[in-house]
Write a structure and sequence with these properties.
Helices cover 30% and strands 16% of the residues. The chain is of the alpha/beta class. Helix 2 (47-54) crosses helix 4.
Amino acid sequence: MTKMTAYIIYVESSGRSINCAKKSQKIAKEIGGIDVELWPGIDKYNVWSELEKKNIDISRVGQSYIGSGYLDCEIASALSHMSLWEESVKINQRILVLEHDAVFYRKFVDYEFDGVLNLGKPNWGVRNWENESNGVHIRNHCNNKHKIWDEYDTDYCQCETLWLYGAHAYIISPSASKKLIESAYKDGIYVGDRFIRTEIVNIADQLPHRVRQESDFTLLQKTEKTNLLSADEAWSD
């Protein structure tokens, strides 16, 4: 098994993000059994200067997508993830990427996969992941012709293999990191959990999922979410 480092992304300008990340770090140790380092991400105040510095555009897909979040915050989050992809390439190691409200509720079990290995329970979509057998499930890229950005379109495909449906917990290999970075420079970047997609990299899920997203606030969405679990309130199987 090759070496892996784990990081939690947080926003330095937000005290709530810092506190949330520290709680998640504590739970990762107590429930997940893994040491996680804090990683400062990009915030909405410097996101446009960061895009300009990197000479990266927002993709046409991202510009046309009307989501539930704030564009500056979503792009800042995507660039924060990208900073860890760059770190993965730099140190030539797999990296476990966690968002500040990613909470382990099962013990971490490492598995080496050349791509993106999703550990996080998707926080939207219709697929019932609980009905899937335990183990690593590789997602096959869907080639159906449908409006992938419109869940209410009658031709929408419910296969849910295209992207992560929440990029709050995944392990990424250096080769996958490089592919995502190259895609960002070539075609632009947009909201993280849809930017990481099977069109670019191999994606698999480790089931049962071991992490879920829990927070009493959000820096991205326009609606509030649920309360962050404490280590005592979290559970493991």
